[in-house]
Amino acid sequence: MIKKGVILSFILLSTLGYTQQNNYSFNLEEAISFAIDSNYTAINARRDIAKALKQKWEATATGLPQIDGKITYNNNLKQPITLLPAEITGGPSGTFVPVTFGTKQNASATATLNQLIFDGSYLVGLKAAKTFLRYSANISEKTNLQVRMGVINAYGSVVLSDELVDIFEKNKVNLEKNLFETRKIYENGLTEEESVEQLEITLLDIDTQLNNAKRSSVIAQQMFNIALGIDVDQTVIFEDSLDDLAVQNISLSLLNNALNIEENVDYRIAQNFAEQRELEMKLEKSKAMPNLSAFVNYGTAANSDDFSFFDSEQIWYQSSLLGLSLNVPLFSSGMRSAKTQRAKIAMEQAETQLEETIQNIALEANTAKSNYQFAIENYENSKKNIALAERIENKNQIKFTEGLATSFDLRQAQTQLYTSQQQYFQSMLDVINAKANLETVLNTPELRNK
Known about the structure:
This protein has about 450 residues and is an alpha+beta fold. It has helices at about 1-20, 30-40, 40-60, 120-185, 195-230, 240-250, 265-285, 335-400, 405-440; strands spanning about 25, 65-75, 80-85, 95-100, 105-120, 235-240, 290-305, 315-325.
């Protein structure tokens, strides 16, 4: 029995330790760092960079020596017959003699070295591969910025839901106490039944909002887990409170930061796109230029009526060839010119899109600054409003108890307080999200792949 108890205790402790090891605990910055490493989209964005690196080498290797080997074996099950004039063997004129040339079996092995000497499209292809690599890196950075914003929003939504659950539970406890006292007063005939009914209506509203907040909290936590790249049912401890996050994210100096357009990731992506279109035009132009390549091969061949190619007495005949190949495009009936012009038009479109992107980014920066400043002002006003609403509700509570205010007045003051509480918590989340949006436009996090 003692041994069984020890074993059971060990299993329980092991299970508890395993569970504790698999629980996560984050403050906001830790959650962002974790998500950039493990978020599903971020992982695939890094894989895109790895693919671009391989594509770059693929383009480079096209101009490097290429060696191909070839081995052939032929067995003439029925050797072809050639008819020769009979006169060459002393036969009568006008007749033919059937002759078989060669052996029944033959084998050969050849190795060929090909080397590109000049090709305009190869040089353009190298530049295009480098541009695509920069494009993939910028896309990965944009993904990291989006992941960061998603984590901030999800983290804030979770702590907001938890704050709402707490405040609704406190309000519910206070209302239940008020309702109990008011019922006693009504039973003693010192107040009207409407006073009880008004409080019951308010309590039902609070109960509904509480249940909704609890459901929203579960969904918010699952969304947060997905943003981090962990199982949706994984338990996570959130170390930051909503109030602390709001205070930490109020930075008026950020409003004075000037926009550096070259640091904006959307600008760099649009610029990469314009560069790619320019290289496509150069590629079409390069196709009108000649290309030169060289090759050298070495081969050996053997012939036999029997399969004796692995015998030491088998004779192998060597051969080798060196050559150059020059391809000169002469006339394409205007096809190359049309392709070049089409590529030029696409390049001009990309340049126009780049200019439009610059203007949109400037507008986005101004809008983000305005929204951030409004969020801060709204947060400060909401803080004052909730203090006023609490005093008004407290005064009406006293007046109602003393019979100087109606139950309708009390319910109105309570509803005003509950609305102010929700607006206050929402204003804190708005500050956090507005700052994250402004930082994304200004690219102050600088989440580049080193």
